[in-house]
């Protein structure tokens, strides 16, 4: 008899998990449908715009901007190796700049969050430096660094260090001070305080800062590559414009959007993964 | 008699309280000013030191014109010969026009995203994709589409600035209590009233937060956009200083850009504080 009840309970539980998974599947399905449908609508507008451009004899020479021509130029760019080379060069610069920004931004952010004196004193100087438009450092970067690659990495680093720094500081200021007291009372060393309390507590905010930094770095990367260098996504756009190959131009613009979207989504997933605040998930 | 003294005593007490309050505020201001100028002084001292140490090496002596002294002198010079006011005016006009367009487009679409779940879900992927297209990569297209460089720059600023305005507006609206709309409807509010009496006051804070973010992005986009084609504005002045090897002019413009950006950012912050109604 009790066996019966148990199996009934198991069946009910199975039913519950069943509806739960089906509900999750439904939500995921809805997400996929909306995602694809949204992009499809964008593509339709693009196609229509390209069609109107191609139909008008005055603008016919710009027909390369159309959706079909753009998509057709992808295999060509891939076979020429242009696409892979541009992506690799830009990713190297982006990665280098972001790594430097994180290495500098996180420790300074931690100091800002821990010391009120440092925070109050550094605020005006950092805010002033932050509002110097990153690309205006370009002539100085070119002067100081021998290689263009290094200048571009410097520009990306100086643009993206601020969001990392301020997010880290903001994250630390939300940490309950009692945690530090408890850790000290339990005999934690400074290193343990850093690795056991500070970093787990603020990893969410650091990733939020990195996501913002990525957005800024992405804005800076393309104009930085318009000057001087002969590789990367920015250069590819300039090159396509100068050779009047408009299909390559829009293909590169689309590539920039897709890569940026993917990187941003990865950051968003990391933020979710490291979130421990209630209601953030 | 005793009443009179009591009143006089009370007056003295309030005066004392008022004085201690105003002196606390005064102390706060002094503390703020001390930190504000102290921080900047440290920054400029470090700058001076870096240039001093670099130029100790005779091979690096051409770095001397990067120092703070010559930069500040040059600011006075550039101000009196009209270069800085002109750059402020042209760059400011482009920035203002780009931001105005971004607000005019971003706020209504943001309200739509916040109010309609269907639109929000459907528009998410195309908007995110377009947001992550680096603004300056629109430049070749903008130059072809628009006749003047000025319009192309305004377009670039607008397309960079529209996303933060749009998403902040939408996020602000999603925090609004739905009961307010019900109450308004029950009290006979027309859709127009709902917009002016509920939506706009409720989300002014978030819209201004979005505008502050948008300002930050447009400030980044403005300078490289002015590197090409135009012959006025901050970006052009920097490019010009580099090509003519006038490094003190370069550093002076850097200071002006930082100071003006700081000023705009502070103004946005003050507006955000003014329109905040959250606790």
Summarize the structure.
The complex is a heterodimer of chains A (281) and B (279). Chain A has 281 residues and is mostly helical.
Description:
The complex is a heterodimer of chains A (281) and B (279). Chain A is mainly alpha-helical and 281 residues long. Chain A is 83% helix and 0% strand. Chain B is built from ten helices and no strands. In chain B, helix 2 packs across helix 10 and helix 8 runs parallel beside helix 9 (234-243). Chain B is globular and about 80 Å long. Residues 1-7 of chain B have low confidence and may be disordered. The chains are: A mainly alpha (281), B mainly alpha (279). The interface between A and B is large, with 66 and 61 residues.
Task: Determine Rg of chain B (CA atoms, Å).
Answer: 26 Å
Distance between the termini of chain A: 43 Å
Total number of strands of chain A:
0
- State the oligomer: heterodimer
Q: Helical proportion of chain B?
A: over 70%
Q: What global shape of chain A is seen? A: globular
Q: What is the number of strand segments of chain B?
A: 0
Percent of residues in helices of chain A: over 70%
Q: What is the typical, i.e. mean, pLDDT of chain B? A: 87
Distance from N terminus to C terminus of chain B (CA atoms, Å) equals 47 Å
Secondary structure layout plus pairing:
The complex is a heterodimer of chains A (281) and B (279).
Chain A: H1 2-55, H2 67-80, H3 82-114, H4 116-130, H5 138-144, H6 148-173, H7 177-185, H8 190-226, H9 233-242, H10 246-273
Chain B: H1 2-56, H2 68-80, H3 83-115, H4 117-131, H5 139-145, H6 149-174, H7 178-186, H8 191-227, H9 234-243, H10 247-274
Key features of this structure:
heterodimer; A: 281 residues; mainly alpha; 83% helix; disordered N terminus; B: 279 residues; 84% helix
């Amino acid at each position: 008899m009790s066996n019966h009840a148990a199996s009934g309970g198991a069946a009910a539980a199975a039913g519950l998990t069943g509806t739960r998974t089906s509900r999750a599947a439904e939500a995921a399905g809805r997400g996929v449908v909306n995602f694809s449908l949204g992009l499809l609508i964008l593509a339709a507008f693009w196609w229509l715009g390209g069609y109107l451009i191609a139909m008008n004899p005055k603008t016919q020479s710009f027909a390369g901007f159309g959706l079909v021509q753009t998509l057709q130029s992808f295999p060509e760019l891939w076979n020429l190796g242009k696409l892979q080379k541009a992506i690799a060069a830009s990713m190297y610069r982006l990665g280098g700049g972001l790594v430097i920004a994180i290495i500098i931004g996180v420790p300074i952010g931690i100091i800002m969050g821990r010391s009120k004196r440092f925070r109050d004193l550094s605020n005006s100087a950092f805010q002033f430096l932050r509002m110097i438009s990153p690309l205006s450092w370009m002539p100085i970067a070119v002067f100081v660094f021998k290689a263009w690659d290094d200048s571009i990495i410097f520009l990306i680093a100086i643009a993206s260090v601020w969001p990392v720094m301020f997010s880290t500081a903001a994250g630390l200021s939300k940490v309950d001070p009692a945690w530090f007291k408890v850790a000290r009372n339990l005999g934690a060393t400074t290193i343990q305080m850093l690795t056991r309390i500070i970093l787990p507590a603020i990893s969410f905010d650091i990733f939020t800062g990195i996501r913002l930094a990525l957005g800024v770095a992405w804005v800076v990367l393309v104009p930085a590559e318009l000057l001087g260098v002969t590789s990367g996504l920015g250069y590819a756009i300039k090159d396509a414009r100068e050779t009047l190959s408009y299909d390559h131009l829009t293909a590169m613009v689309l590539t920039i959007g897709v890569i940026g979207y993917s990187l941003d989504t990865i950051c968003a997933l990391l933020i979710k993964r490291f979130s421990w605040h209630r209601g953030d998930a | 008699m005793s009443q009179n003294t009591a009143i006089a005593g009370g007056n003295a007490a309030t005066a004392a309280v008022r004085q201690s309050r105003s002196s606390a505020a005064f102390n706060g201001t002094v503390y703020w000013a001390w930190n504000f100028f102290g921080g900047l002084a440290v920054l400029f001292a470090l700058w001076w030191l870096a240039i001093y140490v670099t130029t100790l090496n005779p091979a690096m002596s051409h770095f001397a014109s990067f120092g703070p002294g010559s930069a500040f002198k040059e600011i006075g010079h550039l101000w009196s010969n009209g270069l800085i006011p002109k750059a402020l005016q042209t760059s400011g006009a482009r920035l203002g026009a780009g931001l105005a367009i971004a607000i005019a487009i971003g706020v209504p679409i943001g309200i739509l995203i916040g109010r309609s779940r269907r639109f929000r879900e459907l528009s998410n992927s195309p908007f995110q994709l377009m947001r992550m297209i680096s603004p300056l990569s629109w430049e070749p297209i903008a130059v072809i589409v628009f006749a003047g460089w000025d319009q192309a720059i305004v377009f670039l600023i607008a397309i960079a600035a529209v996303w933060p305005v749009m998403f902040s507006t939408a996020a602000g609206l999603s925090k609004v209590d739905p009961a307010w709309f019900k109450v308004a409807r029950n009290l006979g509010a027309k859709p127009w009233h709902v917009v002016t009496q509920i939506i706009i006051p409720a989300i002014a804070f978030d819209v201004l937060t979005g505008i502050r973010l948008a300002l930050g992005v447009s400030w980044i986009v403005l300078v490289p956009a002015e590197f090409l084609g135009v012959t006025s504005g901050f970006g052009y002045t920097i490019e010009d200083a580099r090509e003519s090897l006038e490094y003190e002019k370069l550093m002076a413009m850097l200071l002006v850009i930082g100071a003006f950006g700081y000023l705009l950012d502070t103004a946005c912050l003050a507006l955000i504080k003014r329109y905040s109604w959250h606790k």
